[in-house]
Here is the input.
Amino acid sequence: MTQTDPDFVAFLRAYPTYPTTGVIDDLRTTEYARLDIGGHIYLDYTGGGLYAESQLHRHNRLLAEHVFGNPHSGNPTSQAATQLVEHAREYVLKFFNADPDEYLAIFTPNASGALKLVGESYPFSKGRYLLTFDNHNSVNGIREFAHARGADVTYIPIALPDMRVDASHLDRELAQPSKDGHNLFAYPAQSNFSSVEHPLEWIEKAHKNGWDVLLDAAAFVPTNKLDLSEVKPDFVTISFYKMFGYPTGLGALIARREALAKLHRPWFAGGTITVASVQGDKYYMADGAHAFEDGTIDYLNIPAIEIGLKHIESIGYDVIHERVHSLAGWLLDNLTSMKHSNGMHLARVYGPTTTQDRGGAVAVNFYDKDGKAIDHRFIEEQANEVNISLRTGCFCNPGAGEVALGISRVELDVCFTSPGHEDRLSVDDFRLCIDGKSSGAVRISVGMVTNFKDVQAFLAFARGLLS
Ligand SMILES: Cc1ncc(COP(=O)(O)O)c(C=O)c1O
Here is the structure.
């Protein structure tokens, strides 16, 4: 893209700080060259981040030059592995500016694994579980633990067009914690559907009203700094591959020690106990993070987390944020202004259409000139043809999907109680049931190494849908 390209000139006029992120263009040619060599237009950063080549080389070298054994032993190779794992653990806390006297980091297989740890261990009995409509399914799933233990489960609605929460509604609910039990409030720092960034001030407000706070930061931390010296959620859940692409299979639960002490694990496993007896039918849980890490942890890959975090630090969140902000803004500006020859809009964005308090994912549906929705599966097929990687469906976020697509409780009840669908309902059955409505959307998500060319390629693709 040259400085004389009229679109680029218009983009720079609208987003004059974009050139401050030039370091990312350099990285595209060194660390992420495979994207352009392969002709990929990668726009699924909310699905998964991309790794820099140097992350692989550093990790490979570490593995090639050392011998690491199972950390549950006490031999030299085991000690070497333990040292690296514990170093990575400390680094995670340092990265999020979390005081080790206040927080600890538990390694999990992914954000869902971290969420399940909280759900299965939280003392829900006689308490409340409050959550926003736009949570990921792995946060929604915690309601099953809450129901099973007799807690009240309440959803806070979100409203179109911005898909934000009505603050007064939230205040009302927060003001009514259960007096007889524990209260857990869960929300995404950034929605993986609408990309809305919910206020982190809610954390303190919830605390003042007697709630523990579970902040699902999986979609937020890839492009935003989370400073745990400034905000103090009780539980934070993340997946590392969303931040820096490699390794997959690792996430973390970052928990306040005080809140963690409330959790009661439903079982014990290798690695989580100090002593367990068969004849004595007794076990003693290990202290701290170890009580929550079942079996042998992924000790060869955990050191790659530190490498990935350092990679993000070497670029800086300011740069990453600025990049994503500018490119998402340009994408939104253009998508919302595209019209068919008869004046009908091409796209409908679900969520904020300005860059204020939102991240880099844009969820949309496309419409033909008669206002009929173009099936998101067709859009995906067409995008695949030109090597554009995006995401379609409901992105594991059914609450946001139902609001965006106007699917009502009554319609859902009809589908869920129709004969033959008491126990089984496939996606196709569901689609048939809500006949005439879209059952999903298209999500274009820009991320750390997106460039102007990627966004232009998508906009050219979208223009191809105009008639
Ligand atoms: C906001 C949010 N929470 C949780 C998750 C679950 O992450 P994982 O699939 O890595 O467990 C995702 C994944 O897309 C997400 O976007």
Observations:
- The pocket of pyridoxal-5'-phosphate is lined by residues 46, 110-112, 136, 138, 188, 192, 216, 218-219, 239, 251 (CB under 6 Å).
